[in-house]
Amino acid sequence: MRVFVEKAVLFLHAFPLNSKMFCDQFKALEKEGIPYIAVDYPGFGNERNFLSDYTIETLTDLILGKIKDLGIKKVIPVGDSMGGYIMFDMWRRYNEIVDGFVFVSTRAEADTEEAKKGRYATIDRIKKEGKDFLIDFMLEAQTSPSTKKDSQKMEKLRCIMNEATEEGIIKALKALADRSDNTGILPSINVPALVVAGTDDEKVTPPDIVKNIADGIKGSEFVVLPDSAHLPPFENPDGFNRVLIEFIKNVWS
Fold first, then answer.
1. Residue 131 CA to its chain's centroid (Å)
2. Which end of the chain has the lower number of beta carbons within 10 A, N or C?
């Protein structure tokens, strides 16, 4: 993590992972001399559980507090899935800090009632059985066929997911279920935006769903990466890093 700079890339991870999913991006940005900061959500990675239930807005406030403590005045957030929801809220309430956005495998729409019920059913099952079934499901749903063939990559992904606490997973699921619909703010986003989808993301955020974000943001760039599903930065790091670094350099040239 690079700190005490005025501008930095901000990495916001997917559920139920943590900032380690961006390890290949850290190396690439360090090679280019681009400052960055990466955070874990409460109960994920190195971050302790939050004492109470929380919302996406709570996460945004926690993250903005860290950014300000480091003296960072401008960020380019890179958010995969759940990270994207935080980015929308950041724009809604703290847009003065944003120089550009990189939305990855996320959606602007809120959960449907059916999806909300599904999240709460998952919560009930975790309370009874633990988290292992969820991690098995996520490993299957979030990865492409090419990723599944790479046993080392799959094992690394499982290890990252296993670092999440059951309490953290449950509280995150509640925050996800209750998040706002963000389709209405898309036209107001007037900073450069890169929107990335995975070709093989059939079960979580298919490319046409992700494209709705690009369609709603004037002048944004939409990229669909091969050999990746819901986690392009982890699954296809070379392809992702190429478009990411080009975007960052264009914004901060």
1. 20
2. C
